[in-house]
UniProtKB/TrEMBL annotation:
This is Short chain dehydrogenase. Transmembrane segments: none annotated. Keywords: NADP, Oxidoreductase. InterPro entries: NAD(P)-bd_dom_sf, Sc_DH/Rdtase_CS, SDR_fam. Belongs to the short-chain dehydrogenases/reductases (SDR) family. It comes from Neoarthrinium moseri.
Length: 336
């Protein structure tokens, strides 16, 4: 059989012509010498050799690193001088995220329906740390986001007047109920949707009104759930899941309406979180402690502390071009 020889010879002139007509690109060399008679390669457009500038908004060009934090911390993650409201911040995920905001330099106001926790509570421990170690403040307001709409608006306006601005919100107030759909009552459904959807809307609305009134930009974070995207296997919570799907869609729509005012709106969708309430649930259903971790790709359950960074990110300038998005943090549960 005859040998197959590449027929390159006749195409060489064409290749040479193409090479002459194609712009060449080169990266600047540092500490590297060229041959004595070589000429620099020309490019189709000029290459700037100036130092890379930090992409920052005008208001944070002079921002200092966060107090009591490593000097290497990126300044766009700083919440220094920002005022942020956290609903549902007396305990659980809301309190853990509130502490993260304090550590990043923010002043935090908590809305919660229960009376202010006592001196031995985790909340008061965080409040003392805010004043003593972090040199900021954590302020408590007893408000029911479902029934206290007028108070939400009044207190939010007072906060804006006190500080001159409100910069952010974490809407973490929510309730859960495990009931089959055939047994759900209208009253239970109204209560669930009233807290998880209407309460979130009314809180976000009150904060956004003050931002618009004072012409200040800001960021709103609504706590949704992976259950707003999936139906949880073995966990019968039809109305809760529907409410969290509504929060995700609410976030998109508020983002589309309020973007013109410089107000960003995003949602966080956590996976299963081991809180004090969930620990009590495990006492009632011990099999869930071992079964639930197998539903995600990391084979473990999350803790409230796993969502600290997400809160700071979404409320800071680090996410300044992010809005209308859902940040799902579920260990890969919904990616199967």
């Amino acid at each position: 059989m005859a040998a197959i020889v590449p027929r390159i010879g006749r195409r060489a002139p064409l290749i040479a012509r193409l090479a002459r007509g194609t712009p060449s690109f080169t990266q600047p060399s540092i500490g590297r010498s060229r041959a004595p008679n070589s000429k620099p390669l020309r490019t189709a457009f000029p290459v700037s050799l100036s130092a890379r500038e930090f992409h920052a908004t005008s208001k944070d060009q002079e921002r200092e690193p966060i107090k009591n934090s490593p000097r290497a911390l990126l300044p766009e993650f700083s919440l220094k001088d920002k005022v942020i409201i956290v609903s549902g911040g007396a305990q659980g995920l809301g309190l853990v995220q509130a502490e993260a905001l304090l550590e990043a330099g923010a002043t935090v106001h908590v809305f919660d329906r229960q009376p202010e926790p006592g001196p031995d509570s985790k909340y008061q421990a965080v409040a003392r740390r805010a004043v003593g170690e972090l040199e900021t403040t954590l302020v408590y307001h007893q408000i029911d986001v479902r029934t206290g709409v007028d108070r939400i608006n009044d207190v939010t306006e007072e906060i804006a007047n006190q500080h001159g601005h409100i910069d952010g919100l974490i809407a973490a107030a929510g309730i859960q109920q495990e009931t089959p759909a055939l047994e759900y009552t209208a009253a239970d459904a109204d209560r669930m949707l009233g807290v998880n959807v209407t309460g979130v809307l009314m809180t976000a609305q009150a904060v956004a009104r003050q931002m618009v009134r004072r012409k200040t930009e800001g960021s709103l974070v609504l706590i949704a759930s992976m259950s707003g995207t999936i139906a949880n296997r073995g966990l019968i919570c039809p109305v809760y899941n529907a409410s969290k799907a509504a929060v995700i869609q609410l976030g998109r729509n508020l983002a589309s309406e309020w973007g013109q005012h410089g107000i960003r709106v995003n949602t966080i969708s956590p996976g299963y979180i081991v809180t004090e309430m969930v620990e009590k649930l495990f006492e009632q259903f011990p099999e869930r402690r071992t079964e639930w971790p197998t539903h995600n790709m990391l084979n473990k359950l999350s803790k409230p502390e796993d969502y600290r960074g997400a809160a700071v990110y979404l409320l800071s300038d680090a996410s300044r071009f992010m809005t209308g998005a859902d940040l799902r943090i579920d260990g890969g549960h919904a990616a199967w």
